[in-house]
Design brief:
Length: about 150
């Protein structure tokens, strides 16, 4: 009889421990899960920026008869990049502006000259901004593509 009484006290002291254990482990599990999702989206956006810079560089090496209009060509390169990024980029934190830089080795674009396109994009975290706030909350993604006119 005495053993049952002590057993009952022990059970009453343990009530709620499962809830506390679940709260601790679920918090860590959800933090890990959302971190995986967030960084997966960031990696996808990095691949998208790489492809967008390739599209821009490919547009930049197209043959244009003389006289060349560099402003119109730069606008066409930027539009090709923005069209690709708009179609595929996952922007969880809202719209962010890309910074596009276009460099040419020779403005006349003879065969063998190169076009270098650099795209910078500030990826804004959505799911973990307060956790990553100490790290800045923004991840700078960048992609550079160089193509040669042939």
């Amino acid at each position: 009889m005495k053993g049952n009484r002590f057993q009952g006290r022990s059970l009453r002291r343990q009530q709620g421990t499962e809830t506390v254990e679940f709260a601790i482990s679920a918090t860590l599990l959800f933090l890990l899960l959302f971190g995986i999702i967030e960084f997966s989206v960031a990696l996808f956006d990095k691949a998208t920026l790489t492809n967008a810079s390739r599209e821009g560089a490919r547009r930049g090496i197209l043959f244009e008869p003389a006289p060349r209009d560099l402003v119109a060509e730069d606008n066409a390169i930027e539009q090709a990049i923005r069209d690709y990024a708009e179609q595929y980029l996952i922007s969880l934190g809202g719209t962010a502006e890309m910074v596009i830089d276009i460099q040419r080795s020779d403005v006349n674009m003879p065969p063998g000259s190169e076009v270098t396109v650099t795209v910078d994009y500030p990826y804004q975290f959505l799911l973990l901004p307060s956790f990553l706030g100490t790290l800045g909350g923004v991840l700078e993604l960048s992609s550079t593509t160089t193509m040669r006119a042939e």
